[in-house]
Amino acid sequence: MAGKAGFVYIKASEADSPDRNFKANWQDAMDAGIPRGAYHFYHPTVYERG
Question: What is the pLDDT of residue 2?
Fold first, then answer.
């Protein structure tokens, strides 16, 4: 299986902004037949409680 991904995580958002490439990356992985999952990149300073 050298050179082939068995699974991919795709960034869906970071802090309070959606990833502008998410839809294309999600579709590309599906078209390539690669199982995929999404993740949110968390920034604790953005979500501090006041």
Answer: 55
Q: What is the DSSP letter of 40?
A: E
Euclidean distance between CA atoms 16 and 44, whole angstroms = 11
Q: Considering the entire predicted model, what is its pTM? A: 0.75
Of 46, 41, 35, the C-alpha closest to 18 is 41
As a dihedral over the C-alpha atoms of residue 41, residue 19, residue 47, residue 43, rounded to 10 degrees, the angle is 30
CA distances from 17 to 7, 9, 10 (A): 24, 18, 14
Helix, strand, coil fractions of the chain, as percent rounded to 5 = 20, 30, 50
